[in-house]
């Protein structure tokens, strides 16, 4: 523990040093002015931007009355720097003016002692301040570890998302923006052979750590489920079975996820899909007409078994499909129908994938905190080609 004494009176410094020495606090330094204190704290030139770095000072005993700059002003300056705010400052004063003491506390001082120094009082206040500093440091280190782990988890979560596909008859791209470090949206696509592709977008209830963990569980079983069962009905029912194996029935919160899953056959120009409680996908034709993929069954995980009915649509080529999570609609005021119409109105103008333009239009929009949610947009471009009979 390193203690900094700031006092322009050498006698006061000697007295405090001796008291600390007898209590086995030997790592003590002193400064005779606020300017000298700033040097110890790395604030020599406050006209330039300070690069934050941890200070080795654990406690400051600051004289209230000093020439050039008094302790109250010096304390308020220290409080301007985020990396120095947690250093406890105890004012040392001969002034009994309650207004001045209140000013000192308002400026950021933690406590005060009066002159002449009472050893018992000084040490009691120092021990309390250092104990609180240790607790704050412990919490900061723990929070930093958690943040580092969350960043690593976010990198892992990002790594399971499928990269873009640009095949002759099919292009798939995605934009994804979690509302927190971890998120509950997941998209994946898999080539199935013979020009067929499986595409899924899901949105776990809620967001944050719990939703991301459930999302990662689904990611771990998704490829095996899709490549084994392929058909939309069977895949959704198998995901429902796997999710219910987690045995979440005793939880206070009912976890589930919505999903839209489709198998695209680029040779037959056919799409089979299931919408499990998800916002309707949008299929934009050559002429700009929009069809909604909104034939739905129950979300996955709500019930032990769900009835699933797949829908089939055919296309000619040059159509686009937009799949999205409901967070994409949150920036739009109004009810669900108004939000959907807004999305249709803006997406129908895009003939090709335009990442920067789409990001600016849908992802860089300020949303009230109470409506902020994970945002995801999957864009599928269906290309023209010879269909098989």
From TrEMBL:
This is PP2C family protein-serine/threonine phosphatase. It comes from the Bacteria. GO terms for molecular function: protein serine/threonine phosphatase activity. The lineage of its organism: Bacteria, Bacillati, Bacillota, Bacilli, Bacillales. It is an enzyme of class 3 (hydrolase). Residues 2-130 form the Response regulatory domain. Pfam families: Response_reg, SpoIIE. The modification 4-aspartylphosphate is found at residue 63. It comes from Paenibacillus enshidis. Its EC number is 3.1.3.16. Keywords: Hydrolase, Phosphoprotein.
């Amino acid at each position: 523990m390193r203690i900094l004494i700031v006092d322009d009176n050498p006698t006061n410094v000697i007295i405090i040093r001796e008291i600390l020495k007898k209590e086995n606090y030997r790592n003590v330094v002193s400064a005779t002015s606020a300017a000298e204190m700033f040097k110890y704290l790395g604030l020599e030139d406050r006209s330039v931007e300070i690069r934050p770095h941890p200070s080795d000072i654990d406690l400051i005993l600051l004289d209230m009355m000093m020439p050039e700059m008094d302790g109250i002003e010096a304390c308020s300056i220290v409080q301007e720097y985020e990396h120095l705010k947690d250093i406890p400052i105890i004012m040392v004063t001969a002034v009994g003016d309650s207004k001045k003491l209140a000013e000192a506390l308002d400026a950021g001082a933690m406590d005060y002692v009066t002159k002449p120094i009472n050893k018992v009082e000084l040490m009691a206040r120092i021990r309390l301040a250092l104990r609180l500093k240790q607790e704050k440091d412990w919490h900061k280190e723990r929070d930093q570890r958690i943040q580092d782990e969350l960043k690593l988890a976010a990198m892992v979560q990002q790594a399971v998302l499928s990269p873009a596909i640009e095949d002759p008859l099919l292009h798939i791209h995605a934009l994804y923006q979690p509302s927190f470090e971890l998120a509950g949206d997941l998209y994946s696509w898999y080539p199935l052979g013979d020009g067929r592709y499986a595409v899924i977008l899901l949105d776990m209830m809620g967001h944050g750590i719990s939703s991301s963990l459930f999302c990662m569980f689904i990611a771990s079983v998704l490829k095996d489920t899709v490549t084994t069962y392929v058909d939309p009905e069977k895949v959704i029912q198998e995901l429902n079975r796997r999710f219910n194996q987690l045995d979440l029935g005793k939880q206070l919160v009912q976890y589930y996820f919505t999903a839209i899953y489709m198998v695209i056959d680029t040779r037959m120009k056919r799409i089979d899909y299931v919408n499990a409680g998800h916002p309707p996908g949008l299929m934009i034709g050559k002429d700009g007409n929009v069809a909604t993929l909104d034939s739905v069954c129950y979300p996955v995980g709500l019930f032990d078994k769900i009835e699933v009915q797949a829908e089939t649509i055919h296309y000619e080529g040059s159509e686009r499909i937009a799949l999205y999570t409901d967070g994409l609609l949150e920036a739009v005021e109004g009810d669900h129908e108004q939000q959907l119409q807004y999305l249709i109105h803006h997406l129908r103008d895009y003939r090709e994938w335009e990442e920067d333009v789409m990001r600016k239009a849908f992802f860089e929009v300020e949303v009230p905190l109470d409506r902020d949610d994970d945002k995801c947009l999957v864009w599928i471009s269906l290309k023209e080609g010879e269909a098989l009979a």
